[in-house]
Structures are given as C-alpha cells and as structure tokens.
Design goal:
The structure is a homodimer of 203-residue chains.
Chain A: H1 3-29, H2 36-42, H3 47-50, H4 57-79, H5 85-102, H6 104-112, H7 121-124, H8 129-144, H9 153-172, H10 186-200
Helix pairs in contact in A: 1-4, 1-6, 4-5, 4-6, 4-8, 5-6, 5-8, 5-9, 5-10, 8-9, 9-10
Chain B binds a DNA duplex (30 and 30 nucleotides) through residues 3, 7, 14, 35-37, 45-49, 51-52, 56-57, 116.
DNA sequence: GGATTTACTGAACACTGTTCAGTACATTTG
DNA sequence: CAAATGTACTGAACAGTGTTCAGTAAATCC
C-alpha cells in the first residue's frame, strides 16, 4: 500500500516547507529575530506543528546550515575556474569573502552564531564536510605541486580558513572600521588582503 | 555642600556594583544566559533599578566590553617583554590566542557577540582603542625597522588580527575539529599557527 | 461503521527585556 | 521642627520568546 509512502512524502514536503520559510526569514531578519511563531505564521500553521517536525529551534538552524554550506560549495564550484592550483586557491578565497559580504545573515548563521543547545554531533556534526573537503582537496593539490610553504594540508587549511574567516567576521562585527579609510571599498580591501596573504604563503 | 558629591559617588558605586556582578555572570554563563533579573537578584535589587543606571542590557554589555579590552591590554603589557620587535609581535599574538582560549565567554562578548541594538558610536565606539593602538604601535615599530613585508601598519594589522581572531573564533565555535588530530593540544597548535604565520610575513 | 491512529491546534508555562505608577525615604524649604 | 519637594527604588504589568501537551478532528484500518 502506497499510503505510508505518500505520508512519508507529505512529511518531507512539510519539512522543506518549514525549512524554506525558515531560511528565507533567517536571511532577511537573522536567526535571533526569527521566532517559531513567525515561521508558523508564514506557513499558516500553529507553532506547535513545527515541533512535530523539528525537535527545537536549533535543529531547524542546523538544517538551514546544511543548505547554506551547500550554497557556499556551489559558489566555489562556479567561481573556481582556473587551471592553475594557486589561482584556484585565490578564486576560492575571494569567493568565500564575497559570499560572506553578500550574505551576512547567512554567514552569521553558518559560522558565527552559537546554537544555544549544543547539537548532537554524531547526527549533525558533519553537514559542512563536502564544502570543507573542497577546500582541503584544493590545498592538497597545491601542496602536491609544491606551490605552498606548507607540508600538511590540515595545517594549511587551518591558517587559510582562519585568515578568511577572520577578515569576514571582523568586518561583520564592524571591527575593521579602525583599520580602513572611511571611503574605502570593503570588498576590494578584503580581496587584496586575501591576495597578499596567498602570496606570502607561496613556496 | 558635599551631598551631591556623595550622591555622585554612591551612583558610581552602584554602577560598579552592577557591572562587577554582570562581568562575573557574563564570564560564568555568557551574555545570553545572563538576564537582567539574575543580575538584579545577585546584587539584591529589583530589576527596574538596573535601568536607572544603564539604559538597556546593551549598555551594560559595552561597559563590560570596555573592561575586558583593558584586561586584554594588561595581558599584552605583561607578556610582551622582549626587546626584538618581531619577537614582541609573536608574544602579542600568542597572548591574544591564549587570552581567547582561557576566557572563551569573555572573548565572545568582546569580539563575536552581536549586540541586538547597535550602540551609539560616538559615545561607545572607541572603548577598545587603547588595546588596538598597542597592536598598531608594535606593528609600526616592526615596519619602521623593515622587519615585515608590509608597508602600511593598518594593512598589516588587518591581516594579523584577522588571522588571530580567525584561529580563536573558529576554535570557539568548534570548527577546528575537522582539521586537527583528536588528541592534539589546541593551544599548542594555535600558537604554532601564529608562529608560522609571522614567519611567512617577515621581510 | 466503529475503533484507532495521525496531524494539528492553541492555550498554558516559564522565561526574557523593558516600562512605569506607586511608595518610602532623604533633603530642602518655610 | 513640620511640611513640601526630590530621589531611589520597587514590583507588577506588557509584549515578546521557546516549548509542551491536553484536546480535537480527520484519515486510516479492521
């Protein structure tokens, strides 16, 4: 009988309906300002219903995080077009920075926000792996070709990601104002910082 | 007449009483989990009283932030002891990282948390300036002695701070787990990352 | 067609930041 | 000294939050 299959399908539809609304509202107003009641209103259901599909607001956050990581991965794939590994790394870095500047609320939700309750690691701990592995593979390619000063990919990733995340997150928290001229173009300055950094770690 | 002076003094005492309790509770439980009612309870006053001294929870946050920045500055002054500028920069970097690892809730409050309402810039925008200037002066010293690849201090600070903040904040959000071995000592790895980075930006 | 399962509701609970009428005490004035 | 004024503080109330759960109505099963 196809009833249970249909029900399962309907359940999935309901879940995507919730996450779609949540993603939209998180993007527009941020995670903190989006309440379960608001989301319920948007999809025209009662607040209690959401808890039949997601255990709490955090679980909703992690669902949306997963989607956001994939969005970033898509951006990587679209913008990393060169054949030269080092150039690819530069394209990736600039894509990362641009992504953070263009989607501040999304970036917040992906890397800055602290989920009130710590989520179960075994189930949700790896929803950014595909995106992270894209970075790691590219770094490995660079190291294999002896283009970087690093010998270990994880060690290199630690530094490269930290630099990129530092630039984006300090900017999102308005901490760069003291270091850059009033009229300067922030994307330009951050891109230049990425460029310079990558030059300094060339083998 | 000394009455108004005494009142002013009492007002200041009350303010420090509030901020001291707030700082303690922010440190222990974090900003989000500390409520005005909790603080009021701790100092044995009613919640309304706090609003006679601080306009809202944000203003309290900025007050505590200021104190935290000074605490970091103290740590800098205590640990930056070398005579060699580059060595001093390394000591500063390691102090920064250690500070963040040792006081995660404080670091959060200083650099990661987004205050719900954006505070008035003219009054509170510069409460971290002394600490930041310490970094800038040191970088200028390095640049003047031609020890760094940078020609501009702000440009250098942008990168150096971003790297340090990236390392600390990604660690606080458990994003480094994928890059470092299970049993590794995080302080050691982050210190090594700082060391390596500083080597790569040497002139 | 009657029993059971399922999906959903919306009121209720315990919290949050913030406001404000009311009070009790300190100070000033007549 | 007594009355009037000023000040510091209270705690209930407001509007919001995440979350739970008894109750209901519809779909499914037997």
């Amino acid at each position: 009988m196809g009833i249970s299959e249909r029900k399962e399908r309907e359940r999935e539809e309901m879940k995507t309906m919730i996450t779609t609304a949540a993603m939209k509202m998180f993007l527009e107003d941020g995670y903190a300002k989006t309440s379960i009641r608001n989301i319920a209103d948007a999809i025209e259901y009662s607040p209690g219903t959401i808890y039949l599909y997601y255990k709490d607001k955090d679980e909703l956050l992690f669902e949306v995080q997963g989607q956001a990581y994939l969005k970033l991965l898509e951006a990587f794939k679209q913008n990393v077009t060169s054949t030269d590994p080092l150039e690819k790394l530069e394209q990736l870095g600039k894509t990362y920075v641009s992504f953070g500047l263009a989607n501040p609320e999304l970036y917040d939700l992906m890397f800055i926000i602290r989920a009130p309750t710590n989520v179960d690691e075994t189930t949700h701990g790896h929803n950014g792996d595909a995106t992270f592995n894209y970075l790691i593979s590219l770094i490995e390619e660079c190291i294999l070709a002896d283009l970087l000063i690093f010998k270990n990919a994880n060690q290199a990733a630690l530094q490269i990601w930290s630099m990129a995340h530092g630039l984006v997150s300090l900017n999102l928290r308005c901490r760069l104002k003291v270091m850059i001229p009033e009229e300067a173009s922030i994307p330009e300055i951050l891109h230049k910082a990425i460029e310079e950094y990558l030059i300094s770690i060339r083998a």
